[in-house]
Amino acid sequence: MSVAVGRGVPVGNRVGHVHAAAAVAGTVVLLALGAFLTGRSVAPPPQPADSITTIGGIPVAVDHSPAGALAAADNYVAVAYATVERNPRRDEQLIDSVYAPAIRSSALGGAATVRNQNAGSMALWAHGGQNLSLIGARRLDYYRGDQAQVTTWNVDIFWGPGRPPKQAWVLTQTSLQWARGRWLVTTTATLPTPGPVPALTPQATAADDRESAFNRDLAGLSAPIYGAAG
Amino acid sequence: MRVASVLVGALLVVAAGALMLGYQTAPRVARPNPIRLEDGVPVGVVDTPIGAIAAAENYLVSEDDALLSRTEIRRVVDTVWAPAERDVELAQPFPAAGLAGKPATFPGLQLAAAVAGAKLDSYTPQSAQVVVWHEITLWSPSVEPTQRWSLDTMMLVWDEGRWLVASRTAAPDSQTPVPAWTSGTPRDSTSEAFDTRLGGMSAPYYRGVTP
To answer: Fewest Cβ atoms nearer than 10 Å: which of A84, B116, B171, B184?
Structure first.
């Protein structure tokens, strides 16, 4: 007695169909995988990540490299000089964000002292004074993995009612430590000798002594954020 | 025959879909660096308003920094200027010639350039216009450190994954702010002070403006 299998399809044929289906499925999988990998390979290579992120408007250096340390010092120094007198709230934000916890209290105290000792400048800011801080150049003094030191040549340019626009150049030395995924300031000091000062400005005219010219021509300009080339 | 055609068609659809999926899911960085170095020249490679500002800032300072060498300036211009405008830019006079009637070059001449501020005048994904206020300081053993300030309007075009300079226009001196009063003493304004205190320093890279 024989038992019918399936619907009258010979066993040999059914096995053949299964093999064929498996072959097709395998081909589809291989083809899809190959196409997927080809798609990956022809896509543009990922761009390097940014070395700077902003937290509450404060540029924070997040690249653990020599270039990242330089970008950290560039930004931290520029923001510190721009805000210590004119925008104490933002200076506090900077200290909270990128100064090592051990020096935050002394940094806040130092900033308050600067403001208390510069009544003339504080009056300028109170009456609508403007400023822009910029980095002229900088040097990586050393880089030891989690620690770095940078010397910066920087200037604060300020003007306002009754004060002709002026440049104040200094040299600033900043020590940094890598911690919690960012560069933190461990010490910062304005070097005792002033920065080299480019005092000749032959293109200047009498109009450049007036704040109105600066307010008009520089309306809407913001200080740069500094980075590192990828 | 018909079954085979359908099968081949289905395979092509699967392959095309997988290809697209692979392309779309290729690793990307959430916050790409707006600047990439090419042959030592920073190139703006992010098509956003901030990316355009970063490009303009770096292009101006790179060109300023290269002014002392004909080879260097050509390298910068060839990298960041639109091809049709390169010869025009290279024909510009050396800016130092404008310094108090001095000749264009001096033995031992050194230079430092920096951006003081910038703003975006206009932006579309194809083009942008950026205003940059920047300065150059020149000095040599025989030339006292001297500044030149510029207020430049730069037009950029987005081309094949990068910003290229299409034009650059400098405001006349009468409309360029120059902070003529400076700090320090005469000793700080000597070429020796510059050589001694700025040894080994380099210009920073820029990535936009403070929000």
So the answer is: B171
Pairs of residues, one from chain A and one from chain B, whose beta carbons lie less than 8 Å apart: 289
Q: Do A165 and B177 touch (CB under 8 A)?
A: yes
By the 8 A CB rule, do B118 and B53 touch?
yes
Q: Is B42 within the bounds of a domain?
A: yes
Q: What pLDDT, on a 0 to 100 scale, did the predictor assign at position B106? A: 66
| Ordered structural domains, chain A, with CATH | 52-217 (3.10.450.50)
**Chain A CB contacts of B179 below 8 Å:** 157, 159, 165-167, 201, 208, 214
Give the domain range for residue B125. 33-197
Q: Give B90→chain A minimum CA distance, Å.
A: 23
Q: CB–CB of A202 and B99 under 8 A?
A: yes
Residue B9 lies in a domain: no
B157: CATH: 3.10.450.50
The confidence score (pLDDT) of residue B95 equals 53
Let me know how long chain A is. Answer: 230
Residue B92 lies in a domain: yes
pTM above threshold 0.80 = yes
Based on its alpha-carbon atoms, the radius of gyration of chain B, rounded to whole angstroms, reads: 23
Q: Chain A contacts of B58, Cβ < 8 Å? A: 229
Mind telling me how many Å the CA of B201 is from chain A's nearest CA? 4
Q: Chain B closest CA to A3's CA: distance in Å?
A: 32
Q: How confident is the model at residue A7 (pLDDT cuts 50, 70, 90)?
A: low
Across chain B, which has 211 residues, the per-10-residue mean pLDDT values are 80 87 80 91 95 96 88 93 93 57 66 93 97 92 89 96 96 90 86 88 83 55
Sign, CA dihedral A142-A145-A147-A148, equals positive
B118 and chain A in contact, CB less than 8 A? yes
pLDDT at A9 (0 to 100): 63
Amino acid at A80: A
Domain assignment present for B204: no
Return the closest-CA partner of residue B105 out of B152, B134, B143, B146: B143
Q: Is the pLDDT of residue A179 over 70?
A: yes
| Residue A170, Cβ density class (10 Å: 0-12 exposed, 13-18 middle, ≥19 buried) | buried
**Count of domains in chain B?**
1
